[in-house]
Specification:
Length: about 600
């Protein structure tokens, strides 16, 4: 995540084009005139589709990077941004030790809880926390798991907010075990649910499961059956022994085609398995999560190592590391130097507006482009609109508007546009699973008009507002706005004429869909009237067979234009960013 820190302002470049004084950031193809020095010729631009909010094996979900890369290839998405949670990449305040002192125990004020389940036909089962015999590293209790019959008595563990999960690249588990009632029909299983992966040789797509089976063999043995891998370990009866589970090495041996480090310790459970009516009992104590490489920036360096394992594996799909900054109102951080912010202990999210604003300043100071994520998770739309106007969107550059409920998000966005706030609206998947993007609740990809998939080109287009978002399952065409023969989506030109003709570009509308034209006043109403001031017109798909429509726009005191596509069912499936038409260039408010 290393890169330069130079930033531009969308309104800092002025030009005279036709009757226009134009102000814009990187406005393409000559809309923004050059400064005193000659500028290089613009490279040819194209719409580049991006999934901008994805979580994989360094976050808390089941997705692997491979799963998302496979989905990108299946859905013809060009670029992925890996926005793993910052504190999870660092494993900050993640669980270190479970002492088996009871069904719930605290570490740093954060709870670990156990949940029992059974499988098969057990005649008896029990889980007792006992004072003796305790493991040598006591004091405290131990857990005695017993089962009789034919089946498994499971005890599944979970830390607060999934803080036992995390990438396995540097993680070794240790567990003290004492077999009590054993035999050829009794085993103890330590089961680790890993990440979801695409299908591989002799393996269907799905979540990998790694099982350590103690007492099943006299020597170490590795076997694999599709998505299930088993490591058999000896466990002599009647004595405590500390077992070490080298997750990375065992995944690599069981599934050699998989990038072993691209796995999360998603789930963990212990189980006594019996067959043939046998009775079994095991004591367990002191489960240790040994994470060797998470200090400082090491977590992100490890993430980079894992991603290098996919170099060249998915041609046509570019991917860049980013972060979801998670200890304030969630912010996606693109570009910059990747310096992690300080984390609170415990890692509780602080939704305070001032705290979020300070975090935005921190990220900008480190060269980042900042997106306000799921902005309606804390505010209702009216409160969000007021906050956007009164606090100038907390200083962010981008905001997630393409997400459910999209009409409410657009309502608040139109309030910001009415006040000429140069926020770039983007879409979101926020996918943690990697199983089927099209089945997700939020499946809006963002497309930018850029010359390449290089990080700097993509970020320049995002800063400039040269972007639109679309439901990847229901619209895969392209949107743009042109002024004076030049692409102008996101620009804020100062206009002297009373009327400006804006060319609306929209390709490949689905049958029965309508291009809606949203025209809004820009009167800087502020908090006195935090509501949209818009009119909506319609261009049926049959009138867009050439892919464009010219619209005369009365500028008045100031106006903006954006487009959106509504399908035959009445749902908004895509939306552009606005083109503002202003009487004077707005003050410089975003410094890059």
């Amino acid at each position: 995540m290393r890169g330069g820190r130079a930033r531009l302002d969308r309104r800092s470049v002025l030009a005279a084009v036709g009757g226009l004084a134009v102000a814009g950031v990187g406005v393409p193809l000559g809309l923004a005139a050059t400064r005193d020095r000659p500028q290089p010729a613009a490279r040819a631009r194209r719409p580049i589709s991006m999934a901008m909010h994805l979580h994989a094996s360094f976050s808390e979900g089941v997705a692997s990077y491979a799963a998302h890369l496979d989905q990108a290839r299946r859905n013809a998405v060009d670029v992925l941004w890996w926005t793993d949670h910052d504190f999870r990449v660092a494993a900050h305040d993640h669980r270190r030790v479970v002492h088996f002192d009871g069904p719930e125990e605290l570490e740093g004020g954060l709870a670990w809880t156990w949940r029992p389940t059974t499988e098969g036909r057990l005649s008896d089962s029990a889980a007792d926390f006992v004072a003796a015999p305790d493991a040598p590293d006591g004091p405290g209790r131990a857990l005695r798991l017993t089962a009789a019959g034919a089946g498994t008595h499971w005890y599944a563990g979970k830390a607060w907010n999934w803080t036992h999960t995390g990438n396995i690249s540097d993680t070794t588990l240790h567990l003290d075990v004492r077999p009590e009632a054993t035999g050829p029909h009794v085993t103890l299983t330590v089961e680790i649910a890993l990440s979801h992966h695409p299908a591989g040789p002799d393996r269907p797509a799905g979540q990998l499961v790694l099982r350590y089976r103690l007492g099943a063999a006299d020597t170490v043995r590795h076997t694999v059956d599709g998505r299930h891998g088993t490591v058999d370990l000896p466990a002599p009866a009647g004595a405590w022994r500390r077992h070490t589970f080298a997750l990375l090495a065992d995944v690599r041996r069981l599934w050699p085609d998989v990038v072993a480090g691209d796995n999360s310790l998603r789930g963990l459970r212990l189980g006594v398995t019996v067959t043939g009516g046998a009775r079994g009992a095991y004591l367990v104590d002191r489960l240790v999560f040994d994470r060797a490489r998470r200090a400082g920036q090491a977590g992100d360096e490890m993430r980079a190592e894992v991603l290098r394992g996919y170099a060249g594996a998915y041609p046509g799909v570019t991917h860049h590391r980013a972060y979801e900054v998670s200890m304030v109102r969630h912010l996606n951080w693109f570009g910059g130097d990747g310096t992690l912010p300080p984390f609170p202990s415990p890692p509780y999210r602080d939704n305070d507006v001032d705290a979020t604003e300070r975090m935005v300043e921190f990220l900008h100071a480190h060269g980042g482009v900042v997106c306000w994520n799921h902005p309606l998770d804390v505010e209702r739309r009216d409160a969000l609109a007021r906050l956007l106007v009164t606090r100038r969107a907390l200083g962010v550059d981008l905001i997630e508007i393409g997400r459910t409920p999209v009409e409410d998000h657009l309502w608040a966005y139109d309030v910001a546009a009415r006040n000429a706030l140069p926020l770039t609206a983007v879409g979101v998947t926020d996918d943690h699973d990697g199983t089927d993007w099209r089945a997700g609740r939020d499946r809006y990809v963002t497309s930018v008009w850029a010359a390449s998939t290089d990080r700097d080109d993509l970020l320049a287009a995002l800063r400039a507002g040269q972007a639109y978002f679309a439901d990847l399952a229901r619209y895969r065409g392209a949107l743009d706005l042109e002024l004076g023969g030049h692409s102008a989506m996101g620009a804020q030109p100062a206009v002297t004429d009373d009327t400006a003709t804006v060319r609306l570009r929209a390709t490949d509308l689905p049958a029965g869909a309508t291009l809606e034209v949203v025209t809004g006043e820009v009167d800087m109403a502020g908090a006195a009237d935090p509501n949209p001031a818009i009119r909506t017109g319609h261009v049926p798909w049959r009138q867009l067979r050439q892919g464009w429509h010219d619209l005369p726009v009365r500028v008045g005191a100031g106006a903006y234009v954006r487009t959106q596509i509504r399908d035959r069912d009445g749902s908004i499936v895509a939306a552009s960013n606005p083109l503002w038409l202003l009487r004077q260039a707005p003050p410089r408010v975003r410094r890059f």
